Amino acid sequence: MVGLGWDIFWAVVFLGALFVVGHAILAARKKRATPPPAPADPDLAARVPEKVTRHNGSARISHWVLALATLALLITGFVPILGLQFPWVTIHWIAGIILTGYLLYHVVDTVRRGTLGTMWIGREEISKGIERLKGFFSKGQGAEEKPGKWGTENIAFHHVTALAGIAVIATGLLMMFRVDTWFWSANPYVLGISDNLWGWVYVLHGVAAVGFVGLLMAHIYFAVRPDNFWITRSMFKGWITRDEYLGHHDPELWPVDEGTGASPPASARRTAAADRAGD
Amino acid sequence: MAQINDMMGSFELFQPTELDGAMDLLRRHGEEAWVLSGGMDTFDWLKDRAKRPTVVVDLGGIEELKGIQADNGTLRIGAMTTLTEVANHSEIRSRFPIVAQSAEKVATPQIRNQGTLGGNLCQDTRCWYYRAGWPCYRAGGNTCYANAPGALNREHSILEANRCVAVTPSDVAPTLIALDAEMEIRGRRGTRRVRAEDFFIGPAIDITRMTVLQPSELLTAIHIPDTWAGRPMYFEKVADRKAWDFALVNVASALDVSNGTIRDARIVVGGVAARPLRMRETERAISGHAPNDQTLEVAAQAAVQGARPLQFNEYKVALTKNLVKRAIREARS
Q: What is the DSSP code string of B284-315?
């Protein structure tokens, strides 16, 4: 075993395209059956600033760094296989280092801010996710519960991407030992890994990489959908409007500061949640 | 792994008599097709079962791929012209002697009678790990067996290695690059011309191929412009044997010298990397200088800048330096 057969790339592209087309058709049908949302409670609206911060500056910068690194990795990884020849190896491992740096920053930043819990999928999130899925597939309006900052589908996408990312980074770092870099000369026998295990490393790297192709197709599709434009805009400008906040999110699950529109610190959110629970 | 057999695996043989017919076959069979020119390299691959094409397209019957014609000073050599014809052609011998010399240095008279210029340029590397059918990078795997502790890599690369350390085997390729020749390539979208320098590619660009040729493309001719005709030029090949051997290192140069000063130069070295390397740093270092000892020393140092010899080929560094010096000092009109 030496690596993944690249025909799988086309299978993933096909499945990704199938998902995009299928979702677009269902979403169009659903939109026709859904009446406009009811106006928000005026008292609640009065407590929310005109602009609500969805992504702060560092989150936006790190997202775009991640996006550029991922694009560079996919282009340098797959375009030569598709027939366009250029010296891709150096660009590939440099982009891989940037992706690794992003991952480390993201983990440290998340732990520092204490927001790991917002990405937890528990029973409640699963049942809400199932309800939202049922609502999407139902012919009628459906009872769609508003999520906090992240819906279950967003969290699930994050976790699948994280899994693919960790796999591609771990295997990629090992593979880096087999090419000349600025830091070391190629050593194909590093760590005493057997040929068979190297085969698995290459296969896993390939599987995670083609997985990224499918994930990126879905991500870009949702980003360019007109009904999601407000989210995409927030990744450029950082904020969403009061109406978008009240229309798409549950303020109980995602409280924001009345003055600044920013999310309060994690500790404050925990206290608020405990108050609501009557503790 | 390869099996050493005298019998080739079965394949369907096509013997077109027109170029369009050959192109149609290549388009139809894509990567399944193997192009057979003189057959000097092909039958090793097929008998060892290291390559197992289902279709072989024999170009031997296509007359339009053969012969040498002069056109406004440019020489057009058909890809199926034999190496003997190239070596003996009077105009090549008088205007571009290094092309004739390099063709004459290939293998043996029998092989040169059968082997073609196109085949010599497009032949695959001689790395024995790869040719023996090991699943190395070049064969689509994930290891270079020639760059392992104790590996037999005396003949392998010292420059531009990128995972794979195989080297270019052609003797004629460096001379064509030195003379700024162009390769005529026929493909799906018609005919295109590629500079000889860009025709050969290293593993950083594509680790499984040695030229820019795609599976459905064919090298049809080589065009040598008259830019360097009659100017001082030089070719030398160093091999373990005087005949029937591939180069350990070969060198080709073409110089523009006036009033004892080198105005312009093209120096190309083969056998040190996966493609024939144009020594641009060396060319820059000697331009504007007289070809004296000091210039030669600078040129030699520049030629091996960045060299990373393997366990058993350190000698190639010194060999390359000396050959580059000779290619400048001994160049003759």
A: HHHTTS--SHHHHHHHHHHHTTT----TT-TH
